[in-house]
Design a protein that fits this description.
mainly alpha, Ferritin, globular, binds fe (ii) ion
Length: 171
Protein backbone atom coordinates (compact mmCIF):
# COMPACT_ATOMS: atom_id res chain seq x y z
CA UNK A 1 0.00 0.00 0.00
CA UNK A 2 1.24 3.47 -0.82
CA UNK A 3 1.40 5.40 2.45
CA UNK A 4 1.73 9.18 2.09
CA UNK A 5 4.26 10.78 4.35
CA UNK A 6 1.89 13.30 5.93
CA UNK A 7 -0.24 10.55 7.49
CA UNK A 8 2.63 8.71 9.22
CA UNK A 9 2.31 10.57 12.57
CA UNK A 10 -1.42 9.75 12.59
CA UNK A 11 -0.69 6.09 11.93
CA UNK A 12 1.79 6.19 14.80
CA UNK A 13 -1.03 7.33 17.10
CA UNK A 14 -3.23 4.52 15.70
CA UNK A 15 -0.52 1.98 16.36
CA UNK A 16 -0.06 3.30 19.90
CA UNK A 17 -3.84 3.27 20.39
CA UNK A 18 -4.36 -0.28 19.16
CA UNK A 19 -1.46 -1.36 21.38
CA UNK A 20 -3.29 0.28 24.27
CA UNK A 21 -6.57 -1.37 23.24
CA UNK A 22 -5.06 -4.87 23.24
CA UNK A 23 -3.75 -4.20 26.72
CA UNK A 24 -7.06 -2.84 28.02
CA UNK A 25 -8.56 -6.28 27.42
CA UNK A 26 -5.53 -8.02 28.87
CA UNK A 27 -6.03 -5.87 31.99
CA UNK A 28 -9.71 -6.84 32.18
CA UNK A 29 -8.96 -10.51 31.66
CA UNK A 30 -6.22 -10.39 34.28
CA UNK A 31 -8.72 -9.85 37.10
CA UNK A 32 -12.25 -10.55 35.88
CA UNK A 33 -13.93 -13.78 36.90
CA UNK A 34 -17.28 -12.90 35.38
CA UNK A 35 -18.21 -15.18 32.47
CA UNK A 36 -20.04 -12.51 30.51
CA UNK A 37 -17.11 -10.08 30.86
CA UNK A 38 -14.55 -12.71 29.92
CA UNK A 39 -16.46 -13.56 26.77
CA UNK A 40 -16.85 -9.87 25.89
CA UNK A 41 -13.16 -9.12 26.53
CA UNK A 42 -11.89 -12.17 24.66
CA UNK A 43 -13.85 -11.37 21.54
CA UNK A 44 -12.80 -7.69 21.59
CA UNK A 45 -9.19 -8.67 22.28
CA UNK A 46 -9.20 -10.76 19.12
CA UNK A 47 -10.42 -7.80 17.03
CA UNK A 48 -7.93 -5.38 18.60
CA UNK A 49 -5.04 -7.77 17.91
CA UNK A 50 -6.16 -7.89 14.29
CA UNK A 51 -6.28 -4.07 14.18
CA UNK A 52 -2.77 -3.88 15.59
CA UNK A 53 -1.52 -6.34 12.96
CA UNK A 54 -3.11 -4.32 10.16
CA UNK A 55 -1.44 -1.11 11.31
CA UNK A 56 1.88 -2.93 11.78
CA UNK A 57 1.72 -3.98 8.14
CA UNK A 58 1.64 -0.40 6.90
CA UNK A 59 3.63 1.55 9.50
CA UNK A 60 7.42 1.20 9.12
CA UNK A 61 9.14 -0.20 12.20
CA UNK A 62 11.23 2.89 12.86
CA UNK A 63 8.12 5.09 12.79
CA UNK A 64 6.50 3.41 15.78
CA UNK A 65 6.11 5.26 19.04
CA UNK A 66 9.19 5.07 21.25
CA UNK A 67 6.86 4.89 24.25
CA UNK A 68 5.05 1.64 23.47
CA UNK A 69 5.92 0.29 26.93
CA UNK A 70 3.98 3.23 28.37
CA UNK A 71 0.92 2.73 26.11
CA UNK A 72 0.92 -0.94 27.08
CA UNK A 73 1.08 -0.13 30.78
CA UNK A 74 -1.55 2.62 30.66
CA UNK A 75 -3.83 0.47 28.51
CA UNK A 76 -3.51 -2.37 30.99
CA UNK A 77 -4.49 -0.02 33.85
CA UNK A 78 -7.43 1.33 31.83
CA UNK A 79 -8.76 -2.23 31.76
CA UNK A 80 -7.64 -3.36 35.18
CA UNK A 81 -9.06 -0.47 37.25
CA UNK A 82 -12.67 -0.74 36.01
CA UNK A 83 -12.45 -4.53 36.13
CA UNK A 84 -11.74 -4.25 39.86
CA UNK A 85 -14.76 -1.99 40.28
CA UNK A 86 -17.32 -4.02 38.35
CA UNK A 87 -19.17 -4.75 35.15
CA UNK A 88 -20.87 -1.42 34.66
CA UNK A 89 -17.61 0.48 34.81
CA UNK A 90 -15.97 -1.89 32.33
CA UNK A 91 -18.70 -1.38 29.74
CA UNK A 92 -18.73 2.38 30.32
CA UNK A 93 -14.94 2.51 29.88
CA UNK A 94 -15.12 0.67 26.57
CA UNK A 95 -17.89 3.04 25.50
CA UNK A 96 -15.72 6.10 26.32
CA UNK A 97 -12.61 4.67 24.68
CA UNK A 98 -14.39 3.59 21.50
CA UNK A 99 -16.27 6.88 21.17
CA UNK A 100 -12.91 8.60 21.25
CA UNK A 101 -11.30 6.19 18.76
CA UNK A 102 -14.23 6.46 16.36
CA UNK A 103 -13.71 10.24 16.16
CA UNK A 104 -9.97 9.76 15.91
CA UNK A 105 -10.24 7.50 12.85
CA UNK A 106 -12.91 9.70 11.30
CA UNK A 107 -10.62 12.75 11.47
CA UNK A 108 -7.93 10.86 9.58
CA UNK A 109 -10.38 9.67 6.95
CA UNK A 110 -11.48 13.28 6.37
CA UNK A 111 -7.85 14.37 6.13
CA UNK A 112 -7.10 11.65 3.57
CA UNK A 113 -10.18 12.40 1.49
CA UNK A 114 -9.05 15.99 1.10
CA UNK A 115 -5.71 14.87 -0.31
CA UNK A 116 -7.25 12.41 -2.83
CA UNK A 117 -6.11 9.05 -4.20
CA UNK A 118 -5.83 7.25 -0.90
CA UNK A 119 -8.73 4.86 -1.37
CA UNK A 120 -6.95 1.78 -0.03
CA UNK A 121 -5.86 3.42 3.19
CA UNK A 122 -9.25 5.08 3.64
CA UNK A 123 -10.89 1.68 3.24
CA UNK A 124 -8.67 0.21 5.94
CA UNK A 125 -9.37 3.06 8.37
CA UNK A 126 -13.10 2.78 7.63
CA UNK A 127 -12.96 -0.89 8.55
CA UNK A 128 -11.20 -0.15 11.84
CA UNK A 129 -13.65 2.65 12.59
CA UNK A 130 -16.65 0.41 11.95
CA UNK A 131 -15.30 -2.28 14.26
CA UNK A 132 -14.83 0.35 16.99
CA UNK A 133 -18.40 1.56 16.44
CA UNK A 134 -19.73 -1.95 16.95
CA UNK A 135 -17.60 -2.29 20.09
CA UNK A 136 -19.10 0.97 21.31
CA UNK A 137 -22.65 -0.13 20.56
CA UNK A 138 -22.11 -3.47 22.21
CA UNK A 139 -21.07 -1.80 25.46
CA UNK A 140 -23.59 1.03 25.49
CA UNK A 141 -26.47 -1.46 25.72
CA UNK A 142 -24.95 -2.97 28.82
CA UNK A 143 -24.43 -0.14 31.28
CA UNK A 144 -27.65 1.86 31.07
CA UNK A 145 -27.57 5.44 32.32
CA UNK A 146 -24.37 7.40 33.00
CA UNK A 147 -24.16 8.38 36.66
CA UNK A 148 -22.17 11.42 37.78
CA UNK A 149 -19.22 9.25 38.79
CA UNK A 150 -19.22 7.44 35.46
CA UNK A 151 -19.13 10.81 33.70
CA UNK A 152 -16.15 11.87 35.80
CA UNK A 153 -14.37 8.62 34.92
CA UNK A 154 -15.30 9.17 31.26
CA UNK A 155 -13.64 12.59 31.34
CA UNK A 156 -10.49 11.09 32.77
CA UNK A 157 -10.42 8.39 30.06
CA UNK A 158 -11.03 10.94 27.34
CA UNK A 159 -8.36 13.34 28.61
CA UNK A 160 -5.90 10.47 28.92
CA UNK A 161 -6.63 9.34 25.36
CA UNK A 162 -6.21 12.87 24.02
CA UNK A 163 -2.88 13.26 25.80
CA UNK A 164 -1.65 9.88 24.55
CA UNK A 165 -2.55 10.86 20.97
CA UNK A 166 -0.75 14.20 21.32
CA UNK A 167 2.40 12.55 22.61
CA UNK A 168 2.46 9.57 20.25
CA UNK A 169 1.89 11.91 17.29
CA UNK A 170 5.38 13.23 18.03
CA UNK A 171 7.26 10.38 19.58
FE1 LIG B 1 -9.13 -1.18 17.58
FE1 LIG C 1 -12.21 -1.50 19.64
Amino acid sequence: MNIPHFIIPDLRTDHAGETGAVNIYKGILFVSKNKEIIKFAQSHLKTEKKHLELIEQILPNDERSKLLFLWKFLGFLTGLIPALAGKKLIYATIYFVESFVEKHYEEQIIKLRKKSKQEELIKLLEKLKNDEISHKQESVQRFGKLSFLLKVWGNIVEMGSKTAVMISYKI
